[in-house]
Specification:
With 374 residues, the chain is of the alpha+beta class. It has 11 helices and 21 strands. The strands form 4 sheets. Strands 10, 11, 12, 13, 14, 15, 16, 18 and 20 form a 9-stranded antiparallel beta sheet that branches.
Length: 374
């Protein structure tokens, strides 16, 4: 079996680290010749996954094609499916997910809880919209990732920074915690649900600072979060591996924020903390194998290694010896040569018996380990 992955970043790198244990051939299509997966030279093709011809040529000798990034050429995937290739997740799913406006309509049509919203085509339409009220969240409909393409407009003075692009406008909701549920589903309809994870965000960069697994919430809230996530993935009606990002509100209700139709930053700790990781589940889904046991072996946390906000250049890692002196601590660097402000350069996973032990390790890591520019 030949498996093709559109995208060759850190998610593909961690997928490959697991996939080489199986008897399949893996290939990546990625425009950046120095991307994380470039280390796998015999499996790495430099090419634009947004380009119709590039995707078509890449997929012609593959049996299964999947993604590690949403913003790919869907029309080429439809043609490859017409040629008999398996596309996981389906092109229709990718079309829906890559457009945040279509995502919000999907939640509404399928009676899935989400924040109130409306869509606008440009800045002028937003400024004159009858439902405009403060504060609100502006999300670009396409192209946003890792905190980019999302901003909160708090008052009329902030209107000068409004983007002049098609956007989703959401009401600001009272968030108590941000949660994540990862679900895998194979072609036979078998599905597997990881435990609920709690994400703590860097408010400046608007991306995950660290996360805790399992989430520190009541069991009944966990069940609600899982049930909502399962309903959403069933409605998408395609095999794949998915991350459902959710908000736990102050009144203890749970709503969907967004869905990613791929492995996800919030699933990184599963490599060490779960019997079968999200990357192992992805491989099993693509090969239509029985899904793995995803039970938690031990409590865990993940700390993202983020580029310093004031530095750009050749990456240098400070404090590796301090870091690896900690027991049950696992460093994952993504092989990125250049550090940039807010760029994900790697992550650290820690295991422990309880939250207190884990939080102590998180604080130690954040004080001792960092990436700087040489």
């Amino acid at each position: 079996m030949k498996i093709g992955i559109l995208g060759g970043g850190q998610l593909g790198r961690m997928f490959m680290q697991n996939a080489i244990n199986y008897p399949y051939t893996i290939g990546f299509l990625e425009p950046d010749a120095e991307a994380s997966c470039s280390i796998f030279k015999n499996s790495f093709t430099v090419g634009d996954f947004k380009d119709y011809t590039s995707v078509l040529n890449f997929g012609k000798d593959k049996d299964v094609i999947s993604i590690e990034i949403e913003n790919v050429n869907v029309e080429a995937l439809k043609e490859l499916r017409n040629q008999g290739k398996k596309i996981i997740p389906s092109p229709e799913c990718l079309e829906l997910i890559k457009d945040k406006g279509l995502q919000k309509e999907f939640y509404k049509e399928n009676h899935l809880p989400s924040s109130d919203f409306y869509t606008v085509q440009n800045r002028n339409e937003l400024l004159n919209h009858p439902q405009l009220k403060y504060p609100f969240v502006q999300k670009l409909r396409v192209g946003g990732y890792d905190g980019k393409g999302v901003q909160i407009i708090k008052n009329a003075e902030d209107l000068q920074q409004v983007w002049d692009e098609p956007s989703v406008i959401e009401n600001v909701v009272p968030i108590k915690k941000e949660l994540s549920v990862i679900i895998s589903k194979n072609e036979n309809g078998q599905s597997c649900v990881f435990d609920v994870v709690e994400m703590v965000f860097d408010e400046t960069l608007n991306l995950v600072d660290y996360l805790l697994s399992p989430a520190e919430i009541e069991d009944k809230i966990k069940e609600v979060a899982k049930d909502i996530s399962i309903q959403a993935i069933e409605a998408l009606n395609t095999p794949g591996i998915f991350c459902v990002e959710l908000f736990l509100l102050e009144d203890d209700s749970v709503i969907i924020n967004e869905i990613a139709p791929r492995v996800h930053n919030s699933g990184h700790p599963t490599i060490e903390a779960n019997s079968s990781s999200q990357y192992d589940q992805m491989l099993r889904v693509l090969a239509n194998l029985p899904l793995g046991d995803v039970c938690i072996r031990e409590c865990s946390a993940m700390v993202n290694v983020i580029g310093d906000p004031k530095q750009e250049g050749e990456a240098e890692y400070v404090g590796i010896e301090d870091l690896i002196s900690l027991p049950q601590t696992y460093l994952h660097l993504y092989g990125k040569r250049i550090t940039k402000p807010g760029r994900k350069m790697g992550h650290v996973t820690v295991l422990g018996k309880n939250k207190e032990e884990i939080v102590e390790k998180i604080n130690f890591i954040k004080s001792k380990f960092k990436v700087i520019a040489q």
